[in-house]
């Protein structure tokens, strides 16, 4: 295993040399948002690096300002072969292998300028999101929610196994990890109101949804679809995503045009974009499609989902943290290449920076492997227990949800860091 | 009635002195997209105007480059009082009233530089659209579609009269009038297939939807809703909107998360944004809500919709044009202020340039006042007749749909020009 000369990179760090995820930071010395990669508890400030002669020497074909922009969109638009080459060069600069490039390692002044403690940097939303689409590709989630609402024998809608069901989400409320989320006020019907007249008030059923997010590197021309076997070339990288959901609002509003205010009050993503290439070693086959063979435009390679371990922590307002769920992203039945092929089938243009959500990822077992409280509590009927006799059906004001995800062996882990958000009261301003 | 010195402005022109809609153009002498207003068969090139000393004299507080950007977003973001003042100043410069500002009228060189035949300019999408939301506020449309799918007694869903139902649309495929629209390939179930196995192919049920579009001037902070009585201050202006729809794809995909590929292949808007102030004289009360009083956050002034006459022309591939529908936007049951209040109720942030669609606007009568073919043909069961024994259930390749809309008396008409698009074959590239 090739290791790094960067000090104190723990074998359990999400940000090993095998990862090098990209993000947007500000630092005490540079308050304009700009690009960096994460390694261990450090960031390599790519804008600071690009001020040194070394930058043009190792990246002769990169535009000199490429890492000085407030989002990664321009870098993403350069395409996967460029991302791959840049990541490999950065790996060499950060490696302590005998044949690695020593010029950063041996330059104390440049190290001091560009290698900064991650704790000193503030992370920002890594991409400007043109459009956000949320899919429903987690098989066990769709099955469990269907069982809850329609009962046994009718769990999956007839279209579920035939196409990656999805809906257009709200790009304006996609926020970076750490952003506070206000409990939404909404319109809903109280469960004990026989007349069914709606009321307005703070949602009583605020939930999270554990998802993978996929950022597009490049787009397609309007009217021209992306073949499934080419779709991976359009991907920049992946993040963790929490699709906050107000279940009472959703139940009342969603017929016939789908979820709206129940979803658009906030969607949190983790700050570090794990490049598609970093996840290559973790390909697996997804969940078997119960319909058998899919239509031809959806037939791509079989190992097109990733086996990423996912964990969800709930931290109470009192500060007690408990891991309430563990699952893996191999529970997706549709892959991102299939989602992209389907999304563009009719000619819909995707653009650099567009975000695709996988849909909630749940395991097939008990509450401890489910990706949202709706499933864990069977629609709010069974509480989950926390430490100290505390319990939840849905989230309380002051609760924090933290999603973590990683794959790979110690010392070469490819992880996402945290996707974290705290719900604050509808009655208060931030 | 105050008239203009601009030559040959017909009393029937949509672009009277009482209108002065804003758009984005390129011209033979200036190929960079920039702002203009339309008057009669002319455009007043605002970038050309801003190069003259007169500009700073009449607009001392406007940023000098405000009309040199490729979209109207920055101008929109200045807010309604600014739009109102700028429009009033332009009206004075273009008026032949005795007390009008004569400095443009009397400056032959500036007139030659800034007042150009509209036919010599190319129109572009007027705003950068961050997010696009489509509502369902046309009462007679919702009622008729419900009758078609659910039968008498169950026309309206229980939520319909309680909240402005809407869904997130696709911003990337919002295009300006004139853009060709490829017939989408999609997945759908053939009506005569008893097994109901889906197929993939060019949609056989491509439809249009007549709507009003509303562009946002400014946004709200995430977490902080817009009260209904303040919502009009957030509006920049209005356009005509055609929400192209593939009905066979829609029927198969829309459960349970709403329309997706059936809608995201294209949405056409008219190029000239009619400022909110220009529509002030045409306020009316919308359709009576059958549920009676709405919840408090939706209670705004009653005359909050506009009475804009709408017409739809179908032009066949052979070039025959027939007006197939006439209706008015007073058939909306929810107003844009209500849509904005509802959209932001849970804290969803709107941003400058965001687009809201009203939903299909239909009259209560026969096919000749319906806003889409789904209604006109009762779900494809009754053909509509065109000239020369031609007929349609849904659109054929090569068909052009042109929506027009206007209000006001001859000589002071406030109109939108055209919202036009032609469907080309799924088998061909543009
Ligand atoms: Ca979701
Ligand atoms: Ca529509
Ligand atoms: Mg969300
Ligand atoms: Mg559309
Ligand atoms: Ni009516």
Automatic annotation (TrEMBL), chains A, B:
Known SUPFAM superfamilies for this protein?
A: FAH (SSF56529), Fumarylacetoacetate hydrolase, FAH, N-terminal domain (SSF63433)
Give UniProt keywords alphabetically: Calcium, Hydrolase, Magnesium, Metal-binding, Phenylalanine catabolism, Tyrosine catabolism
Binding site residues for Ca(2+): 134, 209, 211, 243
Binding-site positions, Mg(2+) = 243, 263, 267
Q: Name one GO biological process term.
A: L-phenylalanine catabolic process
Tell me where in this chain the Fumarylacetoacetase N-terminal domain is found: 18-126
Recorded metabolic or biological pathway in which this protein acts:
Amino-acid degradation; L-phenylalanine degradation; acetoacetate and fumarate from L-phenylalanine: step 6/6
The entry's active site is: 141 (proton acceptor)
Entry EC no(s): 3.7.1.2
Task: Give cofactor(s), names only.
Answer: Mg(2+); Ca(2+)
Q: Which GO terms describe its molecular function?
A: fumarylacetoacetase activity; metal ion binding
Q: Which reaction does it catalyse?
A: 4-fumarylacetoacetate + H2O = acetoacetate + fumarate + H(+)
Q: InterPro entries this protein is in?
A: Fumarylacetoacetase (IPR005959), Fumarylacetoacetase-like_C (IPR011234), Fumarylacetoacetase_C_sf (IPR036663), Fumarylacetoacetase_N (IPR015377), Fumarylacetoacetase_N_sf (IPR036462)
Q: Which residues bind substrate?
A: 136, 150, 250, 254, 360
Question: Residue ranges of the Fumarylacetoacetase-like C-terminal domain?
Answer: 137-422
By sequence similarity, the record places it as follows: Belongs to the FAH family.
What is the name of this protein?
Answer: Fumarylacetoacetase
What is the phylogenetic placement of the source species in the record? Eukaryota, Fungi, Dikarya, Ascomycota, Pezizomycotina
């Amino acid at each position: 295993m090739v290791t790094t000369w960067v000090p104190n990179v723990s074998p359990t760090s999400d940000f090993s040399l095998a990862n090098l995820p990209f993000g947007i930071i500000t630092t005490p010395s540079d308050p304009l948002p700009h690009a960096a990669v994460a390694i261990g508890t450090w960031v390599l400030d790519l804008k600071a690096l690009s001020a040194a002669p070394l930058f043009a020497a190792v990246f002769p074909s990169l535009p000199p300002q490429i890492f000085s922009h407030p989002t990664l969109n321009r870098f993403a638009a350069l395409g996967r072969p460029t991302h791959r080459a840049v990541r490999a060069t950065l790996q060499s600069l950060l490696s302590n292998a005998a044949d690695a490039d020593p010029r950063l390692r041996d330059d104390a002044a440049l190290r001091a300028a560009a290698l900064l403690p991650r704790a000193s940097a503030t992370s920002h939303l890594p991409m400007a999101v043109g459009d956000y689409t949320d899919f429903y590709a987690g098989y066990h989630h769709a099955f469990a929610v269907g069982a809850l609402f329609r009962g046994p024998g009718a769990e999956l809608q007839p279209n579920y196994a035939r196409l990656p069901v999805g809906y257009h989400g709200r790009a304006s409320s996609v926020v970076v990890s750490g952003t506070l989320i206000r409990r939404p006020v909404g319109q809903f019907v109280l469960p004990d109101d026989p007349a069914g007249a709606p009321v307005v008030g703070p949602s009583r059923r605020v939930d999270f949804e554990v998802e993978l997010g996929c950022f597009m590197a490049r787009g397609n021309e309007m009217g021209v679809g992306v073949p499934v076997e080419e779709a991976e070339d359009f991907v920049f990288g992946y993040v963790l995503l929490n699709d906050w959901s107000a279940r009472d609002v959703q139940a009342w509003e969603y017929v016939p045009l789908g979820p709206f205010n129940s979803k658009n009050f906030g969607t949190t993503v983790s700050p570090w974009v794990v490049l598609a290439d970093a996840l290559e070693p973790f390909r697996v086959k997804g969940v078997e499609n119960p319909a058998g063979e899919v239509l031809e435009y959806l037939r791509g390679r079989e190992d097109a989902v990733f086996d990423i371990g996912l964990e969800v922590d709930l931290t109470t307002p009192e500060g007690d943290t408990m891991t309430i769920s563990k699952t893996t992203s191999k529970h997706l039945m549709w892959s991102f290449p299939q989602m992209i092929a389907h999304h563009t089938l009719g000619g819909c243009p995707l653009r650099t920076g567009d975000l695709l959500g996988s849909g909630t990822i749940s395991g097939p077992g008990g509450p401890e492997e489910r990706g949202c409280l709706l499933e864990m509590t069977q629609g709010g009927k069974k509480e989950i227990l926390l430490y100290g006799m505390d319990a939840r059906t849905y989230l309380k004001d002051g609760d924090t949800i933290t999603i973590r995800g990683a794959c790979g062996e110690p010392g070469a882990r490819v992880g996402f860091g945290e996707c974290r958000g705290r719900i604050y009261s509808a009655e208060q301003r931030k």
